[in-house]
Amino acid sequence: MQKIVAACGLLCNECLAYKATLADDDNLRETTAQFWSTIYGTHHTKEDIVCQGCMTPGSKYAHCQKCDFRLCAQQKKLQNCAECPDYPCEKLAQFLENLPTAKLVLDELRKENNTK
After folding, report:
1. SS (H, E, C) the chain
2. Are the C-beta atoms of residues 75 and 84 closer than 8 Å to each other?
3. Which of 7, 56, 89, 91 has the highest CB neighbour count under 10 A?
4. Residue 1 pLDDT more than 80?
5. Phi, psi of 78 (to 5 degrees)
6. pLDDT greater than 90 at residue 114
7. In DSSP terms, which residues pair with 5 in a beta bridge?
8. Residue 47 and residue 89: Cα distance in Å, rounded?
9. Closest Cα partner for 17 from 39, 34, 37, 33?
10. Is the pTM of this model over 0.85?
């Protein structure tokens, strides 16, 4: 399966909201809503668990809809932050400190883009 990369380097196709939307799986939506409500200390319903990918057209999970990285990449007409001449900006660098896998994804994309 092709990787669907969010602006920040997270992989949309590994996200539970994306998987539930793609499979139209209400059971996965419900368990994801319960899980995210528990781990994030916020209230989610199965109706909240809808996303077709960060940078693709269609519905977005609420957090992704307003994500600063996504909005910045869209404004700059970039597919993801790896394409940005300011990569990594200070805000992204702080975010990636807690998500080394996303940093590896963006670093690899940046490397691929620089060798083209």
Report:
1. CCCCECCCCCEHHHCHHHHHHHHCCHHHHHHHHHHHHHHHCCCCCHHHCCCCCCCCCCCCCHHHHCCHHHHHHHHCCCCCHHHCCCCCCHHHHHHHHCCHHHHHHHHHHHHHHHCC
2. no
3. 7
4. no
5. -110, 150
6. no
7. 11
8. 34
9. 33
10. yes
Distance CA 116, CA 97 (A): 28
Q: Name residue, tokens 């660098």.
A: 93
CA–CA distance, 57 with 38 (Å, rounded to integer): 29
Average pLDDT, the chain: 93
CA dihedral of 112, 17, 42, 62, whole degrees rounded to 10: 70
